[in-house]
């Protein structure tokens, strides 16, 4: 499932290839996407046909394609969405749902086998509703501490909540918590004291993910169909039963809200358990 680093990788690739491109036509497969919603192809045409791409932006996991009409096309990749730029003569692969014809005989194609993705328009001045950008200036240590302090929810659920911090998903949350040595079930407000290392861990795992051009577990490929490399560097995600790279304990998996959480039971200790251990120390 594409998270922030995968969308950012896509943005950088597409920015190079789409900047200045003129959009000539829009095609839709007629199949609904996220929440079984139809694509508003009329609005898409009004926003893009005869227009040029001005720039590409990312907000959390949303990709925004600004056009000189003033608004933007907003794309969410969902579970399995991909955007590619190919020659118009290339055969359309199955599950192609939206196609923009571009100048110079090219097409921008949105392919999404599972159809949890979204393609919509944003009017000038509007934006998707998302939380603080984790790689931006908004996520200061103080801001993160305030957000953490406001909830007793387990820290993993807090970090996945897109209305608090935008763009984090399961893989990078597991990795960030491991880096910061925080147990995924720790109540968020107990982690206020760890706001500084947690912020550093979040930014480090996201930057590393971008440097490695994303994490490919199942479907993710970039705009040219290449897989990422970051899956080769993960410390705990997908590594149940393997030794922790830091302490050698075996990585454990637990299920939270129907999703796998990977952590190290040796160096990610619940704060209650840590206090208990100390209290039992003799002398
Ligand atoms: Zn460990």
Any idea what the shape is? elongated
How many beta-strand elements? 10
Mean pLDDT: 93
Sequence stretches where pLDDT stays below 50 over 5 or more residues: none
Strand content: 15-25%
Instruction: Give Rg in angstroms.
Output: 21 Å
List of distinct ligands in this structure: zinc ion
Profile the largest sheet.
4 strands, antiparallel
Q: Residue share in helices?
A: 25-40%
Give the termini distance in whole angstroms.
50 Å
The total of helices stands at 7
Return the structural class: alpha+beta
For this structure, the quaternary state is single chain
Order of helices and strands: HEHEEEEEEEHHHHEEH
User: Taking strands numbered 1, 2, ... along the chain, how are they ordered across the largest sheet?
Assistant: 1-6-7-5
Record keyword descriptors for this entry:
283 residues; alpha+beta; four-stranded antiparallel beta sheet; 27% helix; elongated; binds zinc ion
Q: What would your notes on this structure say?
A:
- With 283 residues, this protein is an alpha+beta fold.
- 27% of the residues lie in helices and 20% in strands.
- The protein has 7 helices and 10 strands.
- The chain has helices spanning 4-18, 41-48, 141-149, 155-160, 170-179, 195-211, 271-280; strands spanning 23-28, 53-59, 62-67, 72-76, 82-87, 96-102, 106-111, 118-122, 252-256, 259-263.
- The strands form 3 sheets. A 4-stranded antiparallel sheet has the order 1-6-7-5, covered by helices on one side.
- β3 and β4 form a beta hairpin.
- It is elongated, with a radius of gyration of 21 Å.
- The model has no long low-confidence stretch (mean pLDDT 93).
- It binds zinc ion.
- Zinc ion binds at residues 244, 246-247, 249, 264, 266-267.
